[in-house]
């Protein structure tokens, strides 16, 4: 199975928890998983992995700048291996079409601004962790929750993540990575399988060419040595004929 990098950013821990869950599912399916905060991933690291997952929360209607910068920096390497993106948002927890449209649009924005098209996308509901928020954020979420979820108790956190969704996303990507590896193994194996007979045929053709050259050109040379041309034979072998 392949090596998989899970690179994520998280402001209050829920994206990290989801990244950990995804990493566990991938590892359970035999992949060699490395989890890293996206800000700690050194340049060129993506080249060392067979597949990459990137995760970000939506904060103030956008993904975290470190995630966008990582994708832009590694666009080429990401384009040449199986990749997936997952995002967490409050919008994904809401049962409204406008919220779903907004949630989809954030992914589209990332794709259009970075040019990276992940093979798989997961959009998950995040969490509202009131006790960890500053006063303004707490108030904003309380007001928004008042007209949406109704979850306004600011002394506690609310988790909206559907773990079945996360599991389905992770198992889907695990299978996709395994499938891509099988395809690559078959194509390189096929190339190797063809290489030996092709080399043998080339060698035999080369030998045939050599044999042809030896037999045909040598015997033509022998003939010209051994037999005189008929016209030469008719000519008198002394003096010019018409003198
Ligand atoms: C300051 C702040 C701004 C947020 N802005 C948005 C937003 O614009 N849209 C949205 O759907 N969710 C928004 N959220 C909700 C987060 O996406 C959600 O809480 C997510 O679970 C955070 O993930 P994290 O714990 O990994 O940081 C915001 C949360 C915070 C704290």
From TrEMBL:
<protein>
    <submittedName>
        <fullName>Flavodoxin/nitric oxide synthase</fullName>
    </submittedName>
</protein>
<keyword id="KW-1133">Transmembrane helix</keyword>
<feature type="transmembrane region" description="Helical">
    <location>
        <begin position="194"/>
        <end position="216"/>
    </location>
</feature>
<dbReference type="InterPro" id="IPR008254">
    <property type="entry name" value="Flavodoxin/NO_synth"/>
</dbReference>
<dbReference type="GO" id="GO:0010181">
    <property type="term" value="F:FMN binding"/>
</dbReference>
<keyword id="KW-0812">Transmembrane</keyword>
<dbReference type="GO" id="GO:0070819">
    <property type="term" value="F:menaquinone-dependent protoporphyrinogen oxidase activity"/>
</dbReference>
<keyword id="KW-0472">Membrane</keyword>
<dbReference type="InterPro" id="IPR052200">
    <property type="entry name" value="Protoporphyrinogen_IX_DH"/>
</dbReference>
<dbReference type="Pfam" id="PF12724">
    <property type="entry name" value="Flavodoxin_5"/>
</dbReference>
<dbReference type="InterPro" id="IPR026816">
    <property type="entry name" value="Flavodoxin_dom"/>
</dbReference>
<feature type="region of interest" description="Disordered">
    <location>
        <begin position="223"/>
        <end position="243"/>
    </location>
</feature>
<dbReference type="GO" id="GO:0006783">
    <property type="term" value="P:heme biosynthetic process"/>
</dbReference>
<dbReference type="InterPro" id="IPR029039">
    <property type="entry name" value="Flavoprotein-like_sf"/>
</dbReference>
<feature type="domain" description="Flavodoxin-like">
    <location>
        <begin position="4"/>
        <end position="168"/>
    </location>
</feature>
